[in-house]
């Protein structure tokens, strides 16, 4: 089963996450010209063999397309899924991550949510913390910061539809709201089954201190929060990036459909 997972996951990584690195020589040209593209491999852990699947769904342009996606969890209870870049990615000098995701609940309460995670944990791209429910798969991971899309109110959460930046620096991360360093509530529900696009910007140039900005569907949820990524303990400015998600006794599909990092 482990082996099947590897095969399936690796078949899909290439479409999941493209890394674009700024080429200084061409920096005066428009973005799509100045970037050099290198596809970054992803290694992943899922609980069941069919977590990484091609699924048929409506694309943002309104056509029915077969969209390759990573399904981090199924709609079963107590699932945890994570997916990481194969290599460490330069993050300290600033980056923009753009990704599309979809959270599809079953009837009634839905839980728990997914997270975009930057981590430099000792286990690297093999990091996996089976941590269901509110932990969303990132709790317990040291040297990490998680931007969670939380659809279940628990542990002091402000509501059941918020985006929060969770970190304990070099310590194992914690899902409880007291470890939020910034949060906000999007006007649309995260778990409405629609495809959402989020943009996370780590801006090291516009302000005296680096800041992080998070938007969902063009709406800014966390705006220029002062935050130094170096506080998680990076490796010469680099870290693994990826996604995690979990279900608790309430469950839902968590899918990531695309991901681009510009650094
Ligand atoms: C994980 O990362 C290490 C070093 O950072 C690399 O050598 C290895 O190939 C990666 N493993 C996978 C499965 O991608
Ligand atoms: C650290 O990062 C800088 C900037 O990218 C690079 O020039 C240097 O070679 C790196 N040092 C090591 C030891 O990897």
What's a quick, concise take on this entry?
The chain crosses the membrane at residues 12-33. The protein is mostly beta strands and 263 residues long. It has helices at residues 2-16, 31-34, and strands at residues 17-22, 35-39, 42-45, 52-58, 64-73, 80-85, 89-90, 95-105, 113-119, 144-150, 162-167, 180-184, 195-203, 211-216, 219-226, 238-246, 252-262.
How would you describe this protein?
This protein has two helices and 17 strands. The chain has 263 residues and is mainly beta. It folds into two domains: 1-30, no CATH class; 31-262, Jelly Rolls, CATH 2.60.120.200. A hairpin with a 5-residue loop joins strand 4 (52-58) and strand 5 (64-73). The longest helix is centred in the N-terminal third of the chain and has 15 residues, at 2-16. The radius of gyration is 17 Å and the shape is globular. The model is unreliable at 1-15, 23-41 and 48-67 (pLDDT under 50). It binds 2-acetamido-2-deoxy-beta-D-glucopyranose (2 copies). Residues 236-237 line the site of one 2-acetamido-2-deoxy-beta-D-glucopyranose (NAG). Keywords: Membrane, Transmembrane, Transmembrane helix. The chain crosses the membrane at residues 12-33. InterPro entries: ConA-like_dom_sf, Intracellular_Lectin-GPT, Lectin_L-type_dom. This is Legume lectin domain-containing protein.
